[in-house]
Amino acid sequence: MLAERRHQLILRALRSGGPAAVTDLSEQLGVSPATIRRDLVKLEEEGLLTRVHGGAVVDEGDQPFAEVAEVRVAEKDAIAARAASMVRDGQSVLLDIGTTAYRLARQLHGRRLTVITSNLVVYEELADDEGIELVLLGGMVRREYRSLVGFLTEDNLRQLHADWLFLGTSGVRPGGQVMDTTVVEVPVKRAMIKASDKVVLLADSAKFPGTGMARVCGPRELDVVVTNTPVDGTTCSSFEEAGVEVVTT
């Protein structure tokens, strides 16, 4: 069995059945425990699972917005401040879902900008700022994560253009692949990329490698990465080869 196929089956088993032991996975796939251990190391490096004593577990998906918003606030604020400094008055800004985009929105008060977003918390933050032209994308509401998704959101984005996209992520693989934990968000993120001149990835220290089962884009679709941590050598090389500027706060 090819390694890629084994990896798919391991992830499927963990998502459907919860945490599993190496011995159980070995029996299910008909390979040695040593092979399974190597596979688990590789998948953990890619941010697709977490190894635990004797086995592994996959991330259960996005945490509610309110929980994530309280984590690594200082790191996110530093990234947000650096990102905000890239934008000139009069420009249009597309803000992705997530808590770092929300921290960025807080940095935009008093600016003369157009802000487009599917992030309900960004909308709430900027709704009373009369200097900002605010465009809220339509779509189905994900209440726990305070975002709008679906074909209506994607259709809206096809009618719009932005100078900047500030993109969030749940994880960045060593090859520079931008990942997300929730499949339903991926088409919206891809539509945002197509609608923007410049794509800036906002990624704090927890996102290298982070988590995520669904690929959003590769490094060649990014222009800048803003982070608060030194990027590992493999990922940094991938960004350099793609011409991506890495900005560390």
TrEMBL record:
<dbReference type="GO" id="GO:0003677">
    <property type="term" value="F:DNA binding"/>
</dbReference>
<dbReference type="InterPro" id="IPR018356">
    <property type="entry name" value="Tscrpt_reg_HTH_DeoR_CS"/>
</dbReference>
<dbReference type="InterPro" id="IPR037171">
    <property type="entry name" value="NagB/RpiA_transferase-like"/>
</dbReference>
<dbReference type="Pfam" id="PF08220">
    <property type="entry name" value="HTH_DeoR"/>
</dbReference>
<keyword id="KW-0805">Transcription regulation</keyword>
<dbReference type="InterPro" id="IPR001034">
    <property type="entry name" value="DeoR_HTH"/>
</dbReference>
<dbReference type="InterPro" id="IPR014036">
    <property type="entry name" value="DeoR-like_C"/>
</dbReference>
<dbReference type="Pfam" id="PF00455">
    <property type="entry name" value="DeoRC"/>
</dbReference>
<dbReference type="InterPro" id="IPR036388">
    <property type="entry name" value="WH-like_DNA-bd_sf"/>
</dbReference>
<dbReference type="InterPro" id="IPR011991">
    <property type="entry name" value="ArsR-like_HTH"/>
</dbReference>
<protein>
    <submittedName>
        <fullName>DeoR/GlpR family DNA-binding transcription regulator</fullName>
    </submittedName>
</protein>
<feature type="domain" description="HTH deoR-type">
    <location>
        <begin position="3"/>
        <end position="58"/>
    </location>
</feature>
<dbReference type="InterPro" id="IPR050313">
    <property type="entry name" value="Carb_Metab_HTH_regulators"/>
</dbReference>
<dbReference type="InterPro" id="IPR036390">
    <property type="entry name" value="WH_DNA-bd_sf"/>
</dbReference>
<keyword id="KW-0238">DNA-binding</keyword>
<keyword id="KW-0804">Transcription</keyword>
<dbReference type="InterPro" id="IPR000524">
    <property type="entry name" value="Tscrpt_reg_HTH_GntR"/>
</dbReference>
